[in-house]
Amino acid sequence: MSLQSDFGPGAARERIHNSVEVDLEGRFMLASGAEHPCRIVAMSTGEMLFSTPVRPRLGEKVIVYIAELGRFEGGVSRHEGEGFAIGLKLTEMKHRKLAEQLVWFANRDVLDLPENRRHKRIVPMLQWTIVRLSNGKEKTAKINDISLSGVSVEVNARPLVGGRVMVGSKAAKVVRLVDGGFVAEFEEPFAEGELDERIRL
């Protein structure tokens, strides 16, 4: 799979953004306040395609929450098959972050990524924590997402890949640097059932 897949026949003529197939559970809220479950089946940094029997009107504002990726919003751009698409409104930072995540989704089946996402990722309610680097310095950090096996954080630091850090009270090994932070794998993963949105590191 590559980032040059598309949502449907002829769609490439309408969008300049590359898309990638995904299979993610989510919930979306319409302008009326009604909430519905859905599956997100394709994404780019410009659009998101939903699989759902709900048919909101074109242009209607939609807010969607995906446990692995967080909160997004946008307007309904079209109806397609058994669902609809929204055009995403992203800040520059969130645009870069989503682009990195989509690269991972696109290549997860062919790349031997050291932080291979074996477990579902969540975005905790309390995202702020302290990162202690191998040199003893401490930095305030924001948790982008966390799983049983690892964590992605935004922090003003560039630790060495392979280096040991403390993310809150959890010891971890840095496996990849990203723009504005790093991804680390826990030395002792959480057990099944220990992790939910209320977790505090």
Essential attributes:
6-stranded antiparallel beta barrel; 43% strand; mainly beta; Thrombin, subunit H; disordered N terminus; 1 helix; 6-stranded antiparallel β-barrel; 201 residues
Please characterize this protein's 3D structure.
- With 201 residues, this protein is mostly beta strands.
- It has two domains: 11-107, Thrombin, subunit H, CATH 2.40.10; 128-186.
- The protein has one helix at 92-107; strands at 19-29, 35-44, 47-51, 61-66, 70-79, 83-88, 128-132, 138-146, 150-155, 164-167, 170-178, 181-186.
- A hairpin with a 3-residue loop joins strand 8 (138-146) and strand 9.
Write a short abstract of this structure.
The chain has one helix spanning 92-107; strands spanning 19-29, 35-44, 47-51, 61-66, 70-79, 83-88, 128-132, 138-146, 150-155, 164-167, 170-178, 181-186.
Rg (CA only) = 18 Å
What is the mean pLDDT? 81
Shape category: elongated
Q: How many strands appear in the DSSP assignment?
A: 12
Order of helices and strands: EEEEEEHEEEEEE
Distance between termini? 35 Å
Q: Which spans of ≥5 residues are poorly predicted at pLDDT below 50?
A: 1-17, 110-117
Q: Could you say what the CATH topology of the largest domain is called?
A: Thrombin, subunit H
Biggest beta sheet attributes = 6 strands, antiparallel, barrel
Q: Helix amount, in percent?
A: under 10%
Number of domains: 2
State the secondary-structure class. Answer: mainly beta
Can you identify the CATH class of the largest domain?
Answer: Mainly Beta
Looking at the overall shape, the CATH architecture of the largest domain is Beta Barrel
Strand content: 35-45%
